[in-house]
Design goal:
heterodimer, A: alpha/beta, Rossmann fold, 9-stranded mixed β-sheet, two-stranded antiparallel sheet, 7 helices, 13 strands, 30% helix, B: alpha/beta, 2 domains, 5-stranded parallel β-sheet, 9 helices, 18 strands
Chain lengths: 257, 320
């Protein structure tokens, strides 16, 4: 099978966000970059599928500037066969990224299956999977936490919130967006991380992908940090009094119960 | 300027998240609503009373249960006929799945999970969280393409129904091609509590609960006030709670009216997932815990002592 995985490089979850002086983005200095956690599930699923289907190839794609190469190397260290960076600006929107990914899969494919994460933890847009599927004219299933593979088709468990699950059947090829619960991603071993440093990473330019500025329809600007909270009102007293007072606040001041 | 609201509904009832969309600053826009599925007639009255001028009903058994493919195709046919400036949907499991499909099919601009949306003097202004709420940013639309916008539940209150208003009802026919994806089954959760993404109140426990069984303290209190039960990542990783309850950057990002954190220290990735809550209450033995820096109300104390008393106080209040 020809298996593709689309990943995004994002700031580590422990990052404290600082804004750029012009307010139109974040200060990227000192950021530790990681593969977005749900995208690691997508890589893992691709590797497990390759293990079931002999002769399969796992190709990992990521759109972004030069720094993205590090995350692609990490995907190679986890076990992917090849990695390609799509040379797009760091502020490309979901639509532009999905256009580029679709074009790359068009060039390198055809795909038998494409995995993405359910969303990236930077913009949380949850958009690239379904966008990409429409651009490739493939069916897509989002927020998937379980897959049964059969010949030419898959049955997916889709997490629709509150613990409810939809069981969706789709023929392959298809685009599947991975949710926590799908698998436990493996760690790359130190040896494989060293080996991955020597592996080539191809680059496709926006020109080669046929992506232009017109494919970007949104731009983020005027970033703001959340306003600092007014100081916290500490409720004092004996525990039973504290409890009664908090319930009174919920009922009378906030009027939520 | 035409705006189209995509209505979600179940058993003839509009979902609360759809009602809320009418509470956004829609200015002088001509508000349309569309609903698809079966037995849609009961929806037209409330949609009109909420403020829709026209209600488009796509009646079709093939749309009775949601799949992104079928509703995406149906709306993909209908929306160009109406030619609105913007399409609004709630950022629910359905809206999240549907919006990017529509944006791709209609070559539209996409802004998801927005927390401010206003339509003033023909200008659409939209703001959304980034880095799971560690910051927010305005979404600039760089051309005049159709805009597909999803709005985070509980961003604004739903307006009251205005009995004096009613909408013109327009039936719409679409032709669906053969479907590739098939919804085989819906496995309903055994969770009787509201989901954390849609609850008005969330009571969250952390790893300091110490075991899955001890979460009954949190559950009892949550049930006494009709709240959802949330969990920190550490408590999920420790196996105390299922992933569906996890609040934080790698779990669910939530904005309830009140978020009550019990024994949660407030790791940065947890704060990112809940700091847009309207009110935050922290209960923790450590007065230096970072959670108090984002809290509006705090109790410094042992959750095992305080939380059962909260449940008792809530029940007493209800009983009185």
């Amino acid at each position: 099978m020809n298996i593709f995985v689309c990943i995004k490089q994002v700031p580590d979850t422990t990052t404290r966000i600082k804004l750029r002086e012009d307010g139109n983005g974040i200060d990227e200095a000192d950021i530790q970059w990681i593969i977005s956690p749900h995208d690691e599930l997508a890589i893992e699923e691709a590797l497990r599928l390759r293990e079931q289907q002999t002769g399969s190839i796992v190709t990992v794609l990521s759109a972004g500037p030069e720094r993205v190469t590090d995350s692609l190397r990490m995907a190679l260290a986890m076990g992917a066969d090849s990695a390609v960076r799509l040379d797009l600006p760091s502020d490309a929107d979901s639509g532009m990224n999905a256009r580029a990914l679709a074009a790359a899969i068009g060039k390198l494919g055809p795909a038998d299956i494409v995995f993405t994460g359910k969303e990236a933890i930077d913009d949380g847009a949850a958009a690239v999977g379904p966008l990409l599927a429409v651009f490739l004219d493939l069916p897509s299933v989002t927020v998937v936490n379980g897959i049964d593979y059969r010949d030419g088709a898959i049955t997916c468990r889709r997490d629709v919130g509150g613990g409810n699950i939809e069981v969706i059947e789709t023929p392959l090829p298809a685009v599947v967006a991975a949710q926590v619960g799908l698998n436990e991603p493996r760690y790359a071993t130190a040896l494989n991380i060293i080996k991955a440093k020597k592996k080539p990473i191809d680059t496709l330019s926006a020109d080669e992908l046929g992506v232009t500025g017109a494919d970007r329809k949104t731009r983020l600007k005027n970033f703001e940090l959340p306003p600092p909270k007014q100081s916290c009102r500490i409720i004092e007293g004996a525990p039973a009094d504290q409890a009664r007072e908090l319930i009174r606040v919920l009922a009378e001041d906030i009027q939520v119960i | 300027m035409k705006i189209l609201i995509i209505a979600e509904h179940k058993n003839g009832q509009l979902s609360e998240t759809t009602r809320e969309l009418f509470g956004l600053l829609l200015g002088q826009a001509e508000v349309h609503a569309v609903a698809a599925g079966e037995n849609l007639e009961p929806l037209a009255g409330p949609l009109g009373q909420l403020g829709a001028a026209k209600v488009h009903l796509i009646g079709s058994p093939a749309l009775a249960s949601y799949t992104g493919e079928s509703l995406g195709q149906a709306l993909g046919q209908f929306i160009p006929q109406l030619a609105p400036v913007a399409v609004l949907a709630a950022h629910t499991p359905q809206g999240k799945d549907l919006a990017p499909r529509l944006a791709a099919a209609l070559d539209a601009a996409l802004a998801t999970d927005c927390i401010q949306v206003s339509f003033n003097d023909g200008q659409v202004t939209v703001r959304r969280p980034v880095y799971a709420g560690k910051a927010t940013a305005e979404v600039e639309f760089t051309d005049d393409s159709l805009k597909v916008i999803t709005v985070r539940p509980r961003t604004v209150k739903a307006p009251e129904l205005d009995a004096a208003r009613s909408a013109e009802v327009i039936p719409v026919a679409v032709e669906l091609p053969e479907q590739k994806t098939v919804l085989k089954e819906i496995i309903a959760s055994d969770n009787a509590r509201p989901d954390v993404t849609e609850a008005a109140i969330i009571v969250t426990g952390g790893r300091s609960l110490g075991s899955a069984e001890n979460f009954s303290v949190i559950e009892n209190f949550a049930d006494s006030i009709g709240a959802a039960v949330g969990s920190s990542r550490a408590a999920v990783d420790a196996g105390y709670r299922p992933y569906r309850d996890q609040v934080g950057q790698t779990g669910k990002v939530v904005s309830p009216q009140v978020y009550i954190a019990c024994g949660v220290s407030g790791a940065i990735q947890h704060l990112a997932g809940m700091r847009t809550s309207k009110y935050i209450v922290a209960i923790n033995t450590d007065p230096e815990a970072p959670i108090f820096q984002v809290a509006d109300y705090g109790i410094v104390g042992d959750l095992f002592e305080v939380v059962p008393l909260l449940a008792e106080a809530a029940k007493n209040r209800n009983g009185s």
